[in-house]
Each structure stands twice: as structure tokens, then as C-alpha cells.
């Protein structure tokens, strides 16, 4: 599932998957602005069948944060 997560991020941000790692975020990906951040969260909610709280949304600063919240929602990223 981590691969799927990276593919979604790459698609939304219009960058190659190879440019994404756990430390990636708005500070390292130029196209990761507030709008694309919301688009990304919407895509993740649709794909993984979760609903992020406002607190979770404002907490997301990196891919690592996204992974943490997905796992907290019961998503297995090791598949």
C-alpha cells in the first residue's frame, strides 16, 4: 500500500514517484500547496475509505504523517 500511497501523491503533485520519500511534504515538493494538499487528502480518503479529522488534516506536514494517520485508521500499508 505504500507504493499506492506514493503513486497517489505523485499523481496529485504531478511529479515522479522517485521524488517522494517519507520526509516529502510542502517544504520539499514545490507543487504541494494548500489546494493540492486538500486534493491529496480527498484522493486518500476515497482510495483508502477513511475520513480524516480536521486535527489530522492540519497535522499533516510530511508523507510520514500521512502514513501515521492512515495506520491509525486501520489501513495496512505493508500490503
Automatic annotation (TrEMBL):
Residues covered by the Carrier domain: 4-70
Matches recorded under InterPro entries: ACP-like_sf, PP-bd_ACP
Domain of life: Archaea
The protein's name in its UniProt record: Carrier domain-containing protein
Amino acid at each position: 500500500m505504500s507504493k499506492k500511497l506514493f503513486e497517489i501523491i505523485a499523481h496529485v503533485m504531478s511529479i515522479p514517484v522517485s521524488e517522494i520519500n517519507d520526509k516529502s511534504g510542502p517544504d520539499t515538493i514545490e507543487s504541494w500547496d494548500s489546494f493540492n494538499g486538500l486534493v491529496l487528502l480527498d484522493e486518500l480518503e476515497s482510495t483508502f475509505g477513511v475520513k480524516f479529522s480536521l486535527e489530522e488534516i492540519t497535522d499533516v506536514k510530511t508523507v510520514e504523517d500521512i502514513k501515521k494517520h492512515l495506520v491509525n485508521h486501520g489501513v495496512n500499508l505493508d500490503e
